[in-house]
Protein 1
Amino acid sequence: MKCNIPLIKYLLPVVLMFLNGCKMMTPLPAPTSLQAPRTFLERMDSSSVGGMTIRNFFTDSYLVALLDTALIRNPDLAVAQQRIAQARADLQERSGALWPTVDAEISGGVRRFGEYTMDGVGNYDTNFSDNINPDQRMTNPLPDYFVGARSTWEADIWGKLRTRRKAAYLRFLATENGRQLVQTTLVADIARLYYELLTLDNQLEIIQRNAVLQQQALETIIIQKEGGRANELAVRQFAAQLLNTQSLEIQIRQQILEIETRINTLMGRFSQPIVRGNPILDQKLPQSIGVGIPAEMLRRRPDVQQAELELKANQEELQAARLSFLPSLNITAYTGLNAFRSAVLLNPGSLAFGLLGGLTAPILNRQALRANQNRAQARSLEALYSYNKTILEAYQESALLMGTIDNLKKISALKTQETSELQQGVSISNDLYLAGYASYLEVITAQRSVLSAELEQTTIRQREFSALIDLYRSLGGGWE
């Protein structure tokens, strides 16, 4: 049997090309991602606070009103919304690449053929033919008119274009999760600032109340000095303590002004007073907090979802970069009226059409495609590392906040008892001083201690709310 060597020589590159295509079309194996632990501080619940809506989680109607306004007017959310619009446009563009492009065309031109060219000689001789009518005789220069449509289409035989469309779709979903992430952060920031504002209000009230008591103590010590029962040093000490408390009041007022400004900025409006609800100590904390199953908790977080979608999108981009090495089937077509005389352009005889299809594949200069593949592979690995980091940080953050909330509750209970004891101590020290059984330094110390304890008690309550708000955000709450 004879072997057709020339035929094999031409068919061998084609066979190798298609074998390489089979390799390129094989989906990439999914990279290994970090797995969250099955237990979560040994506390698993059927529900999670992350699944609660904003109105159900926050019971203060004034805070909810602030959040409603912020979700409408916040500039960062508006920017995130425009990023979604951009991603949607990218998806539309890549979806449109799957379909043929059809362009309407009206064109005109002119050509002059040289006398010693094939066209020049052929056209010259054709004009003497008896088979053509006067309208078919060609001039030199020769005009060219066309009215019709042209179309180009790359047939997606390997799925390259569909892979790119899928990557764009995943990125579109990722931008939506990015907007949700901005919203959860916004809700947490405003709520945290709101409770900080309530804390400062309470601290201001404490300072003002203690300033009144210190003013009364100063007046008493002045009277005792005039009666010879106290000296000038005692008067100076009480006066200095009152001045220190008054300076604290001014500092608190400045902090209130700064926080109100920050809240108004987040709400996208100019500065105006922030209406508040009940004092911080009257605000209710939930008795129990459900965290849910770790995997479900992590799946709710917008940043985890966004990182996961970005990872999948980069994997699709890498697959599309690999498929770019395969041949492309391109089809071009046109139809319309074509003539070299404008007078006969609309004549039915001027109807023309054409169709051309072919496979094109990179052979020599493949470095650009290889560089694109390497870039896509590096981005895919970067997305994987970012995804694993996001999962790790999300889990660690939530675990830390759960422990923080438990410890703050214990500290708050002890601090309440401490404050009660110190308040009684102030009353006792005043009575003992008037009876001559305590020095003025003991009175000053008692007043300073109770002021510090009351301020710290308020701060602890504010930290409880901040930790709870952060836990709500870390469990994926605040965006529904």
Protein 2
Amino acid sequence: MSVTKHHVMIKGVKDGLVFLLNDACEWQILLQELQHKLEKTHQQILTGPIIHVHVKLGSREATEEQKEEIRSVIRQKGNLLIQSIESELPKEEAAEESAVSMTTLKGMIRSGQTLHNEGDLLYLGDVNPGGTITSTGNIYIMGSLRGMAHAGVDGDENAIIAASHMRPTQLRIAGVISRPPDEWGIEEAFMEFAYVKEGKMEIDKLHQLHRIWPESTVK
């Protein structure tokens, strides 16, 4: 019986090959075509030195047994090294993941200017007095924060504000407002971060971040 060869696509990428496996066809037909391409139609491009392989299953949720079947077929070619076997996230999960992604922006926020961001923000530049930077997530400023910063604007009290040079006119996290910097008891605030503890704003050195974010939950 001939194999209809359109359920498995093999694409070259920078670090190896991507195997795109159709998520709608019958499983055994998929394995049969994968075997056929490894042994027959694509034999020439799949020989030689070690090639890294990433397997994409589309929206198919494969069991561990099914993933092992894929590994067994691909391992027959001794130079193919499987790096990953992954399914796409459902749309809801993908949207949730993108919602907490980090945005990187650069420039300078001058007096009277406001920059707002959805999600975590890494800002490469200064926020001058009279300038405002806000975000629904965390704010990391690689520069001087001398204006106003408001993280977790939608009510997330777990958000933080960090800056290379922390001398703001005001800090806010969710609905919590900081004391004026003159009351921090810190003469020069370099590499500091602000966070909410028991309903109050606290300031600490950035290398102490692990104390409020255990390793497993660092964003």
